[in-house]
Amino acid sequence: GDSVTQMEGPVTLSEEAFLTINCTYTATGYPSLFWYVQYPGEGLQLLLKATKADDKGSNKGFEATYRKETTSFHLEKGSVQVSDSAVYFCALTSPGTSYGKLTFGQGTILTVHP
Amino acid sequence: SQTIHQWPATLVQPVGSPLSLECTVEGTSNPNLYWYRQAAGRGLQLLFYSVGIGQISSEVPQNLSASRPQDRQFILSSKKLLLSDSGFYLCAWKAGGTDTQYFGPGTRLTVL
Predict the structure, then answer these.
(1) How many Å apart are CA B90 and CA B104, to the nearest integer?
(2) Buried b vs exposed e over A3-13: b needs ≥16 C-beta within 10 Å?
(3) What's the CA gap between A36 and B85, in Å, rounded?
(4) Is the CB of A98 inside 8 Å of chain B's CB atoms?
(5) Which residues of B touch A44 (CB under 8 A)?
(6) Mean pLDDT over all residues of chain A?
(7) Residue A34 three-state SS
(8) Which distant-in-sequence residues (6+ apart) come within 8 Å of A69 by Cβ?
(9) What H or E segment, with its residue span, contains residue A12?
(10) B106: three-class secondary structure by DSSP
(11) A82-98 burial string, b = 16+ CB within 10 Å, else e?
(12) Do A42 and B106 touch (CB under 8 A)?
């Protein structure tokens, strides 16, 4: 079945540092890939997505590129801020499921210090 | 634009009491609707999904149930809560034919 593996963390960075959160996946066919962010006490917000190989999703300075050859979708940001502290989830949905099942990674806690 | 609401935001209930959590979506028709639970360990577990009124599918057996009495309303219920039902419950929706789910603000349930 489908699965998503992301680095466990927690990840602790200083403000303005470079961020990478690794995400790899296993799926049949060509899944759509997502990054969601969850701020403390809140629901999940869609951060970015990509639907086909070599697509780059971007939002709020975050980027991730759909790499079919390495089955990866790593999240990057060039300069993090304290306000980026949150839990980040990588997820996929395969085109074969009729109800759009989302498969999530376990989440990565990011803490950014001033 | 579409919005999704959940209530209550927080709930503290004794073991053995009933439960009703509500989720409503505005600004769309015939959405797919989902209930997830997030335990303290961060992972998300899909509990139920619905592709239409009265159509409910369960992903995991448990003492919870779900109903969809109206097109944009999704309710999570239990007759008798267990300690293990504590967690953060998230509702999500997706437009038919698209691939992106959008989440509500969540309900924090504590069973004592």
Answers:
(1) 6
(2) ebebbebebeb
(3) 24
(4) yes
(5) 44, 90, 92, 103
(6) 94
(7) strand
(8) none
(9) strand A11-14
(10) coil
(11) eebbbbbbbbbbbeeee
(12) yes
Radius of gyration from C-alpha coordinates of chain B: 13
pLDDT digits (tens, 9 = 90+) for A8-35: 889 999 999 999 999 999 998 889 999 9
For A50-83, the pLDDT digits (tens) are: 999 999 999 999 999 999 999 999 999 999 999 9
CB pairs under 8 A between A and B: 50
All residues of chain A having their beta carbon less than 8 Å from the beta carbon of residue B104 are 43
Beta strands in chain B (DSSP E): 3-7, 10-13, 19-26, 32-38, 44-52, 55-58, 64-70, 73-78, 87-94, 102-103, 107-111
Closest chain A residue to the Cα of B89, Cα to Cα? A43
Length of chain B: 112
